[in-house]
Records
---
Amino acid sequence: MNPNDALEAASFIDASRLLQSIETLARFGARDDGGVDRPALSSVDIDARRFLVEHALALGCTVHTDACANLFFRRPGLEDLPPVMTGSHVDTQPTGGKLDGCYGVLAGLECLAALNDAGIRTRRPLEVVVWTNEEGTRFQPGAMGSSAFVDPALMERYGQTKDADGISLDRALVAHREAFPSLEERVTDKAAHAFIELHIEQGPLLELADVPLGVVKGIQGVRWYAVRCKGVAAHAGTTPMHARHDAMTLAVCIRAEISAFAHQLGGDDTRVTFGRWTVLPNSINTIASDVTFTIDFRHPNPAVLHAFDRQLAACLAHHAVTSEALFIHPPVVFAPSVVQRVADACHALGTHSLNITSGAFHDAMYLARHCPSAMLFVPSRGGISHNPQEATDDDHLVLGTRALAHCLVHLCNEAP
Ligand code: HGY
Ligand code: MN
Ligand code: MN
């Protein structure tokens, strides 16, 4: 390896090509308010994937897929060694932005283009990956593609999960295979050499510190639950208040108790959200008979996460209501060797960086079980994400991509 290859690759990152690719991808599922609504494996997601496959083929990559419709864009290396992987997801929240996940995929493709332009060959193959259903809004849990890549046995359960319209993941995967009939399965029994995910921070820390790059040391733990409260449907006008069994009254009371002990257990690091409510019969003048709400609880401390689980179980037992655990993941600590590559890249590019623990979960939380992994963040303007207003300064997007290129070249030239 030429010792300048990493900086050379970083210098060949083409700002306008990168920024244009972000705007082009954002057209698939574009919302009128500038955001993106691209549910996993929906028709707009399949169209977006077609654009990315064509982009990767034009860069000279081979393209493979797997049982969970992950896409693998591979640039060959000089030696047949386990690859270095980078990438993220392109499915979005219903009121998502242009960058969450998409930036990491497009920056990876821009790194491939820069390596081509610079005429740089690496020892190891380099793969840019599109992980399926990271957001977990269409099918729960989140990060399905990356978790199934690491533990293929999960597909047995995942395949039967259904979206709000009753369409199973298995059925959505059939549509994907029909859209890409010639894509071959990625077959390997070897683990990748390393994984790096470039992502927007989706929070305020880098902007508050006025630092353009985040060296991500790990990811906090997450709990998703669905809580179902039952009542008795009755007339809103005739039923005396004392005679009601209002599922919404019960749900709101339980929500308040959960919020109180979540904050008591977790202190300032508590993140608790009750984001999805399903009310039946959902009629202005009928008392609710059935209310299901979701809990998204996050915390960096495993003991707090376990205490929350216990206290939630006690609370729900007291109220005799049922719940379903949709997603449980412990905090993740990334591999110091790969974290160091990220820190070295920031230093080599002459920029300050901030060590940070990710508040959002990412596919890297599963890849960390597969191979040494780490993440690199760029700031989110106003700390906003999962919102059409999600944005990052262009120069930060470009700098993050240059730092990614620097990391990837070093990792791709590491000896076995
Ligand atoms: O919810 C998350 O942390 C991720 O953005 N899907
Ligand atoms: Mn994301
Ligand atoms: Mn997200």
---
Amino acid sequence: MRTQVAIIGSGPSGLLLGQLLAEAGIDTVILDRAGKDYILGRVRAGVLEEGTVGLLDKANAGARMHAEGLQHDGFSLAFDGRDHRIDLFGLTGGKRVMVYGQTEVTHDLMACRESIGALSIYDAANVQPHDFDGQAPFVTYEKDGVAHRIDCDFIAGCDGFHGASRKAVPERSLRTFEKVYPFGWLGILAEVAPVSHELIYANHPRGFALCSMRSAHRSRYYIQCSLDEKIENWSDARFWDEVRRRLPAHHAEAMFVAPSFEKSIAPLRSFVAEPMRFGRLFLAGDAAHIVPPTGAKGLNLAASDVHYLFSGLVEHYKESSSAGLDAYSQKALARVWKAVRFSWWMTTMLHRFPDTGDFDQRIQEAELDYLTHSRAASTVLAENYVGLPF
Ligand code: APR
Ligand code: PHB
């Protein structure tokens, strides 16, 4: 089989790239080691920057998002028993975010791909990129015990943090940066109205808490937990009690509870691999970088990578110019590092670290006080939260 761009990974990065390329008349095959239902069963963050919304529109995949997504003009920082609203709209000159689950984005992109009849191969075993340092790369995989090969012009490694693409790059060609945080997030989904119409990020002596949502009837809550916490020790009742304790009283009293239908613990990590291009192999999304979820940048960073890669590929095919592809890694990484910095900063400011001394604690309190009382400082937060331009 032959295609122009072989895409490894059918998560948001691979699917968005595939859809944009299809709209531009460029042929792709997407390979994923997992099945469709498994991919659609993953629950992840749910805040889209305007740039991400624009790309989904450009890919012709935005209709349901516009119908069902929730536009948010601000969010709340809660600490010291009080709420401080960050007016995203006012501080950024009219920008907002869209609250719409990543699972729904994935679902919509998969439906678009099916409707145009583009090929996705699920449950593909041993997917391997080959010869990307030469002119004729190819990808091999096995399906139902039979070996296959796809020849292509380029390979897009969109296969997430544990994927095969980054692993195929010789170690000497890669530099990696990592920070592992000494806590995780315990998250639940429940069919219940959100406690507030906007998100609440809470800093509390018992640890961080986040009140988010998927719709007017479905809520997503998280609490900071220790890394050795066991999910089976967290009944719904214990979880709801703990969220309440970490919120200002007026929210705790107003909170509705319901049985959860999803509950999981995720560790927090920052990770970047440089560069993001190796000859004809390009890494995008979680394959190249991970951010902690505080600030919801993961999917949005994947989208900006895809924007740069898509533009470079279009320049290559339509204008016979390699300029965009040559600049891909540098452009993508410049934006990646700013989001990595922002996610690290939000994480540091809002969580309780096990080894925090009195001095560091006062610094955190001073930072929150400054942030919520200085328009300049609030603007820095708002500008990053709605997403830096790309
Ligand atoms: N071979 C083929 N496919 C693979 C392999 C492999 N060896 N390893 C992983 N995959 C697939 C996974 O099954 C998954 O469907 O690659 C896909 C990667 O998807 P994601 O992990 O969702 O990564 P990405 O598309 O870059 O999405 C970035 O998702 O994880 C969140 O926080 C992240 O929001 C960000 C967004
Ligand atoms: C979510 O709704 O899952 C969510 C929202 C905001 C974040 C992280 C996760 O910062």
